[in-house]
């Protein structure tokens, strides 16, 4: 009987140790879970900030594109108002082939 009580006491001691280990593991897992939640919340905040920055950049891009389009329309309007001459006499045509000067000979 004493032997059985001793064995029962040892088993209870092992169960208490195992229970303590499980409790410690549960606490460790809860701590890891809490850190994971904090990291998730932090990443969500960063993602939201990046989305806001992206949206601001899109708006800026669209505004610049609109300004470029407006500038092109104004430039085309200015170009259409300029006189259309085929050859501007005041400018030299540097790419035109040079005609040889007529040779004056002694006709006689």
Helix content: over 70%
What fraction strand?
A: under 5%
Global geometry: rod-shaped
Question: How large, in whole angstroms, is the Cα Rg?
Answer: 45 Å
Overall SS class? mainly alpha
Q: Let me know the largest β-sheet.
A: none
Provide the residue-averaged pLDDT: 87
Count of alpha and pi helical runs: 1
Q: Helix and strand succession?
A: H
Distance between the termini: 159 Å
Total beta strands: 0
Low-pLDDT residue spans = none
Protein described:
This protein is mainly alpha-helical. The radius of gyration is 45 Å and the shape is rod-shaped. The longest helix is centred in the middle third of the chain and has 80 residues, at 2-81. The model has no long low-confidence stretch (mean pLDDT 87). The protein has 1 helix and no strands.
Helix-strand blueprint:
Elements: H1 2-81
State the gist of this model:
The chain has 108 residues and is mostly helical. It has one helix at 2-81.
Structure keywords:
108 residues; mainly alpha; 74% helix; 0% strand; rod-shaped
């Amino acid at each position: 009987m004493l032997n059985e009580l001793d064995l029962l006491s040892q088993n209870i001691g092992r169960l208490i140790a195992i229970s303590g280990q499980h409790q410690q593991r549960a606490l460790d897992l809860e701590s890891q879970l809490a850190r994971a939640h904090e990291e998730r919340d932090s990443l969500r905040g960063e993602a939201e900030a990046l989305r806001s920055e992206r949206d601001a950049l899109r708006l800026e891009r669209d505004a610049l594109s609109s300004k470029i389009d407006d500038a092109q329309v104004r430039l085309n309007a200015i170009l259409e108002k300029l006189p259309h001459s085929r050859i501007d006499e005041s400018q030299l045509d540097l790419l035109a082939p040079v005609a040889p000067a007529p040779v004056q000979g002694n006709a006689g």
